[in-house]
UniProtKB/TrEMBL annotation:
<keyword id="KW-1133">Transmembrane helix</keyword>
<keyword id="KW-0812">Transmembrane</keyword>
<feature type="transmembrane region" description="Helical">
    <location>
        <begin position="19"/>
        <end position="39"/>
    </location>
</feature>
<protein>
    <submittedName>
        <fullName>Claudin 12</fullName>
    </submittedName>
</protein>
<dbReference type="GO" id="GO:0005886">
    <property type="term" value="C:plasma membrane"/>
</dbReference>
<feature type="transmembrane region" description="Helical">
    <location>
        <begin position="103"/>
        <end position="131"/>
    </location>
</feature>
<feature type="transmembrane region" description="Helical">
    <location>
        <begin position="60"/>
        <end position="83"/>
    </location>
</feature>
<keyword id="KW-0472">Membrane</keyword>
<dbReference type="InterPro" id="IPR013287">
    <property type="entry name" value="Claudin12"/>
</dbReference>
């Protein structure tokens, strides 16, 4: 149940809203690609070497540290893309509540989305550390 406010629709650029709606699925796509790359790098490390000396001499199709570096970049990009719509929703809901006497509530999902985006950024930082240590 939403009050129709023609002024709000006239003030807000609809392209901005479409971009914000595209951000969460794009963040999910980038994080899924990062997971596949990370698993590819781990499989190279685990499957192509029987002893620690074999890691340096083994020839595989992928570079393990390069996979982790690109996976970290994709995780960071996914977290950075997924954060703005949730934060925008928090501030926009407060703006609507000031107008319409506290009709709109911020539910638990917004905080989960912000925490998940922060987790993606934290995972990206850990991937960068992994890259620096295992290069």
């Amino acid at each position: 149940c939403y009050y129709f406010d023609s002024d709000w629709y006239a003030k807000v650029d609809q392209l901005d809203l479409r971009l914000l709606q595209f951000c969460l699925p794009a963040g999910l796509l980038f994080s899924s690609l990062a997971l596949l790359l990370c698993l590819t790098g781990m499989c190279k490390t685990a499957c192509c070497s029987k002893t620690p000396d074999d890691i340096k001499n083994s020839r595989c199709l992928v570079n393990s540290s390069g996979c982790h570096l690109v996976a970290g970049m994709l995780l960071f990009l996914g977290g950075a893309i997924a954060m703005p719509p949730s934060v925008w929703f928090l501030f926009h809901t407060r703006n609507l509540n000031e107008r319409y006497d506290n009709l709109f509530a911020v539910e638990f999902g917004v905080y989960v989305a912000i925490g998940s985006a922060g987790g993606l950024i934290l995972a990206a930082l850990l991937m960068f550390m992994w890259y620096c240590m295992c290069k």
